[in-house]
Amino acid sequence: RNEDGEGGSWWEGRIVGVKAKSPEFLDSPWERYAVQYKNDTSQLHHSPWELHDCDSQWEHPHIDETSRDMLLSSLDKLEQFSLRNRDLIERLNEVALKPEFINRFPVPLSPEMIESRLENNYYRNLDAVKHDVSVMVTNATSHWGKKKELSLKIRRLSDSLTDILSSL
């Protein structure tokens, strides 16, 4: 990107070496590739996600649209058809924005965040969605664990989400 944060252009170069950054982590992709840029004799080290092959068209891997749309539709139905779920989902979305929740959990996920990630093709596969749902449920259980009524609602919501994901 340019200094103003807009656009930018690719610098042309070639990979002149591949070597682990550290002997302790031989499989690590971090700064594994030595790159020499056009009109420059020095070599800079890069991670694979920093490089781009201009000759290939690469599409970011994501959940197929049919599964994604079915999942979004199922989540919407889950919220719309059950007042009990709607109340809990609203509470989960609200608490995920509060500083005490954000600071307590390393990944403060909410139904709204998971839905947004689905809509924006964030997930590469359904296992990643399952993982985020699991983290969200674990966070909620930990946060409200002593409140029996909420714990029961969380368990029911978790079961419903598991059923939805298992059906895909």
Describe this structure in words.
This is Bromodomain-containing factor 2. Residues 98-143 form the Bromo domain. This protein is mainly α and 168 residues long. It has helices at 65-80, 83-95, 99-104, 111-119, 126-144, 148-166; strands spanning 13-18, 33-37, 43-46. The protein folds into two domains: 13-50; 65-166, Bromodomain-like (Histone Acetyltransferase, Chain A, Up-down Bundle), CATH 1.20.920. It contains six helices and three strands. A three-stranded antiparallel sheet has the order 1-2-3, with no helix packed on it. The longest helix is centred in the last third of the chain and has 19 residues, at 126-144. It is elongated, with a radius of gyration of 22 Å. The model has no long low-confidence stretch (mean pLDDT 90).
* The named CATH superfamily of the largest domain: Bromodomain-like
Give Rg in angstroms.
Answer: 22 Å
CATH class of the largest domain: Mainly Alpha
Low-confidence stretches: none
Global morphology: elongated
- Remind me, CATH topology of the largest domain? Histone Acetyltransferase, Chain A
Strand order of the largest sheet: 1-2-3
Total domain count: 2
- The proportion of residues in beta strands is 5-15%
Helix content: 40-55%
**Secondary-structure class:** mainly alpha
| Number of β-strand runs | 3
GO biological process, one term: regulation of transcription by RNA polymerase II
Keywords: Bromodomain
Organism: Anthurium amnicola
Domain BRWD/PHIP ancillary-like: 9-56
